Amino acid sequence: MEQAKQKIDNTMNARRDDAGYNNRIALKPGRVTEMRKVYDDILKPHYADTGRLPPYDDRRYQYARTEEDVRGMREAGLLAAQVLDYAESLCEPGVTTEFIDERVHMVIIDAGAYPSPLNYGQFPKSVCTSLNECICHGIPTPDEQLIDGDIINVDVTVYLNGYHGDTSRTIRVGKVTDEVEKLCKVTEDALEAAIKIVRPGVPIRKIGATIHEIADKHKFGVVDKFVGHGVGKEFHSGPTIRHHRNNDFGDIELGMTFTIEPMLTIGSTRDVMWKDGWTSCTADGKWTAQCEHTLLVTETGCEILTLSPAKKVLGDHFIRAKR
Ligand code: MF3
Ligand code: CO
Ligand code: CO
How many CB atoms lie within 10 A of CB 143? Predict the structure, then answer.
């Protein structure tokens, strides 16, 4: 068991005048510990034992049309949101990303679910933890500690009774600078604005247009390499939801279940992929924020399946799942 909080290790963390953005030492790869085990009686997704990626078919969309599908998606979404609330409560200076992974894994399996990232395309851990200049898919490690002023995106996906629920948010650790706070806030506003235009018949490309316009207004960049996606019985499938301005075909349809998960940057939107094949960091080392919800398209708009039970409903537009 990792210690919850450790003495800040100045060799791997800390701030120095000669360091990068915000005087923070740049992230570097750390040790990756063994994959965690899940209980035998937990229903696992098809890739759990092999690590083989499922065939990604952009034209195969995910829908929740039957009562059973809707209930399953609501339950998976709620669990993902609760786990993310819990993960957020752990994020304070001195905590390692390994510790977050350990605890998140524990609460997911105790709820009878499988942590979807685990062995997905051989991803080695149960949650993604993306710090500061890491755009997404950061791998938890005992060699990475949170320090005051950091931001960390924790991306939780659970597979519960055959359905995936996928959600993330960027957590401020202690006191962050005004510029970094604005980056996080604008990213949240962009996601919220995009969610508000979701309803049957609206072109999918309007999601990207909405996000990009808000980012432009504040002179932040929109990462185009990583996209939102259909989610349901599969972790990732069509439709591809791009967050930048685009000309994609296709309309939003009743019953679709997909994510929107914009990544905004202070500087460059180009990334450098680490040798681990997962960790994506900004090319210029400036920081980036992301947040994500899983949505169910309803007749009048959409239901946010991963809305935090601890937080307020985002206005009247949303029909909150009856629980
Ligand atoms: N949860 C991420 C998403 O939003 C995907 C993580 S894939 C993993 O789509 F393998 F890195 F876990
Ligand atoms: Co996602
Ligand atoms: Co996610």
Answer: 16
